[in-house]
Amino acid sequence: MHELAITQGIVNFALEEAAKRGAEKVTALTVSVGALSGIVPDCIETYFALVAEGTPAEGAKLTFRRIPAKVRCADCGAESELPDFRLRCPACTSRKVELLSGREAYIESMEIEEKE
Ligand SMILES: [Zn+2]
């Protein structure tokens, strides 16, 4: 995934939501970023300034929350957080694991300013 495309998605979503709620301005956004998503929050911030320029989301404060990578093991049934980027069960080292979280990136919450 590319940060610019992701940032555009974030901005579009924020603007749509703001319009739906009749907001004048988006003041803050909390973005959840999965540990395995490959997304660099610094890049998002840089692109955000460009993409949001001239829109109601311009100047919104960005906060990033890191979502840990979690797997469920098919062999021992354990659900664990991955301590590193190797896709295997931390409990029994089996490779038959299913990724439960860690790939996603999405807007967790946003703050808006209503029209007076
Ligand atoms: Zn296991």
- Measured between the Cα atoms of the first and last residue, the distance is 39 Å
CATH topology: hypothetical protein PF0899 fold
- What portion of residues is helical? 25-40%
Class, according to the CATH hierarchy? Answer: Alpha Beta
Poorly predicted regions are: none
Q: In the residues, how many domains can be counted?
A: 1
Bound molecules: zinc ion
CATH architecture: 2-Layer Sandwich
Taking all Cα atoms into account, the compactness measure Rg is 17 Å
Question: How many distinct helices?
Answer: 2
The outline comes out as elongated
- β content, as a range? 35-45%
Element-level helix/strand string: HEHEEEEE
Strand order of the largest sheet: 2-1-6
Please explain how this structure is put together.
- This protein is α+β, with helices and mostly antiparallel strands.
- It has a single domain, classed as hypothetical protein PF0899 fold.
- Helix content is 25%, strand content 35%.
- It is built from two helices and six strands.
- The strands form two sheets. It has a three-stranded mixed beta sheet. It has a three-stranded antiparallel beta sheet with strand order 4-3-5, with no helix packed on it.
- Strand 3 and strand 4 form a beta hairpin.
- Helix 1 packs across helix 2.
- The longest helix has 18 residues.
- It is elongated.
- The mean pLDDT is 93.
- Zinc ion binds next to loops.
